[in-house]
Amino acid sequence: MNISLVMFLVFIAITLGVTYWASRRSAGASAYFAASQIKGWQNGIAVAGDYMSAASFLGIAGIIAFQGYDGFIFSVGWLVAYLTVLLVIAEPLRNAGKYTMADVLAYRLKPRPVRAMASLSTLTVSTFYMIAQMVGAGALVKLLLGNMVTYNQVVAGVGILMIVYVVFGGMLATTSVPIVKAVLLMAGTVLLSILVMAHFHFSFGQFFGAIGQVTYHDAKGAVVVKDFLTPGLRYKPPYGPLDLISLGLALIFGTAGLPHILVRFYTVPDAKTARNSVVWAMVLIGSFYIMTTFLGFGAATIVGPDFIKGHGGTNMSAPLLAQALAGNIFFAFISSIAFATILAVVAGLTISATTSFSHDFWTNVIHNGVERRPGEEVLVARISAFVVGAVAIGIAIMLGPTANVAFLVALAFAVAASANLPVIVLSIFWKRFNTVGAVTGLAVGLLASIGLILVSPSLMAVDPPTVTGTARHLIQAKAWFPLENPGILSIPLGFVGAIIGTLISSEPTAEEKFNELLVRSNTGLGAEKAVAH
Amino acid sequence: MGNAARNFGITEPKQYQAEKSSWDEIAASRQFQDLMATKKTFIVPAFIFFVVYYFALLLLVGYAPELMSTKVLDVNLAYLFALSQFFVAWIIAGLYVKAANGFDRLSKDILEKAENAKGGK
Fold it and tell me: What letter would DSSP give residue A263?
């Protein structure tokens, strides 16, 4: 066993210990973390903790390290997205007293069909999100273990361990878990940023000078020197600029449709606290994403794309940067933070996806809202956690370690923006909206986004025979859809689906309850009584 | 693991209930209309502004990369514009919080009136 691996395991043990202690403490001392008393800043840190996943830390650093400025666009979009949450979604949801998408939709629509579709969509978004986490965790542990194991074995092993831990270990998604995680991640990022600047003698001139001439070998083996601050290294003509717009749409409208983020606005006492917590989250998330400048460009200039390519691929840029700057112990420390982050996000996702499935789909849709035996929902949730986990592990293995996790998460955002966002927005703001519209909107958004991803250049391309293994594209044919991110087409399709579905049917009861939802969501009338156990 | 709420350590509150007619009455009231109008005058322009500002970055970076690569200080236009997005987002969020305190005052009146009407029955 090497020193990094030992240190990694020690740090993981400490992190899990602190998390466990914090969640026990919050469960016992309910007065402190009670939902009705939780402060805006606490909830804000929790929101940030849930949001800054492996994609943020590992993925963006990687994209910037390989494709420079274009990777930074991900960082911008992931912060700006919170304005959609703040201006459009957070307060109406809190005021209406609803905390899952299914609940919002069931408010004035027919519960069974909308719950069925909503849980399906929640499950899909969570699986996509989870694939990215699995790829990140696999690459990370593979890097620590070296050549003892293959990437596939690591993903399967680590993935199963994580799911078992989440299902039986009881890492609850109480507010304290993401708070601990967010603090650790911020601390690691600030440290790394300071070390990067120290490397350049705290001179921005030297830092950006180095970014101006990153040297590496291209695919053909020729040495190239590029200015990494120039746009266009990833998004090249003819379709690149359009793909950039598509990515932007998915990012700024996807966040407001993420199930594990929406639920956070229910754990606060009122709309004012929900609002303040978004602002706190924005301060943290924004500072973090500005620092991806140091992580990503630092990795490009100090470690170099050539070295990263040979040591785990794009996703390992930030940990390798830590190793280059401060040795193996810091490397183990940063790796363990990334791993803990992944574990916490997997926990939150698994819980929101599987409870939605067992509660909304199994009990409410299949069994008419009756739990036939005590504990049946728990069992169904556990089984579905394993199914979701297995699917995510399988796809992560299929994609291989070279798939960038930030890119993968952007696809989850595209699905959320296409399926979830249109129906949430329309149910809050459009009186005429009805059950058929919600079902068709969710179905069209889901099918369009997934269908377009399947026929996109990420999965479809003709590889030369020299490309082998997981690096080969799944479908060896010219891509039918030229963009990697489907948002630009699938988000409008989601809206069109919802609007057409609504217009071809009529549902007077849904319209009758509109004023009630309108008044509740805008004034908070009768929604001030969230209480904790 | 019964439902999402339990996992997140919360219970669903008993909601304030009222007749359909009283919801319609509140929705039609002058005060509620004022609240909605006040909200719209801030939220709609703010939303449009941030969407336009954000996509301006993407369009310029995508379709005019040479222009955006113009050197400014140690960096370039593209990086400065991207960095400005963070500060613009923070400023809009700050302005919204300020405006929303005004919304709270308006909705407080509506809430009081509704509670009084309920007590009078």
Answer: G
The model's confidence at residue A89, banded by pLDDT at 50, 70 and 90, is confident
Residue A65's nearest CA partner among A370, A337, A298 is: A298
Selecting from B43, B62, B79 the residue whose C-beta is nearest the C-beta of A245 gives B62
The Cα of A498 is separated from the nearest Cα of chain B by a number of Å equal to 22
* Residues in chain A closer than 8 A to B102 (CB atoms): none
Q: Which chain B residues are Cβ-neighbours of A231 within 8 angstroms?
A: 61-62, 65, 68-69, 78
| A-B C-beta contacts closer than 8 Å | 219
pLDDT digit string (tens) for A428-442? Answer: 889 999 999 999 999
> A489-510, pLDDT tens digit by residue?
999 999 999 999 999 998 888 8
Which tokens is A439 given?
């079902």
In a domain, A32, yes or no: yes
The answer to whether residue A514 is domain-embedded is no
The dihedral sign for the CA sequence B29, A275, A355, A452:
positive
Q: Which residue of B has its CA nearest to A210?
A: B74
Domain assignment of residue A512, yes or no = no
Contact A263, A352 (CB under 8 A): yes
Give the residue on A whose Cα is nearest the Cα of B36.
Answer: A522
Q: Which domain holds residue A52?
A: 3-401
Can you give the pLDDT at residue A101? Answer: 78
8 Å CB contact of A516 and B55: no
Backbone angles phi, psi at A475, to 5 degrees: -110, 120
pLDDT digits over A120-161, tens only? 898 899 888 888 888 888 888 888 888 788 888 888 988 888
- Beta strands per DSSP E along A297-413: none
Chain A positions in Cβ-Cβ contact with residue B45 (cut-off 8 Å): none
Inter-chain touch A241–B59, beta carbons under 8 Å: yes
pLDDT of the residue at A531: 40
Q: Contact A87/B57, CB-based, under 8 Å? A: no
Q: Write out the H or E segment, with its range, that includes residue A343.
A: helix A317-355
Residue showing tokens 């990012």: A251
The rounded distance, in Å, linking the Cα atoms of B98 and A237 is 43
Which residues are within 8 A (CB) of A79 and not within 5 positions of it... i.e. 6 or more apart?
A282, A285, A286, A289, B85, B86, B89
Q: Give the residue from A442, A388, A386 showing the smallest Cα distance to A415.
A: A442
Which CATH number covers residue A183?
1.20.1730.10
Contacts of B41 in chain A (CB under 8 A): none
Cis peptide before A238 (omega within 30 of 0): yes
Q: Are B24 and A515 in contact (CB under 8 A)?
A: yes
pLDDT band at B119 (very low <50, low <70, confident <90, very high): low
Query: Two tokens at A215?
Result: 């040297």
8 Å CB contact of A533 and B107: no
Residues A57-70 as b or e (16 or more Cβ within 10 Å = b): bbbbbbbbbbbbbb
Q: What's the token pair of residue A12?
A: 């993981």
Count of structural domains within chain A: 1
Q: Which two tokens stand for residue B109?
A: 């009146």
Q: How many CB atoms lie within 10 A of CB A368?
A: 8
> What ipTM does this complex have?
0.89
Cβ-defined contact of A529 to B50 (cutoff 8 Å): no
* CA A478 vs CA A219, A234, A459, A473, B29: distances in Å: 20, 19, 10, 10, 59
Alpha carbon distance A446, A440 (integer Å):
10
- Angle of helix A376-399 relative to helix A111-145, nearest 10 degrees, comes to 50
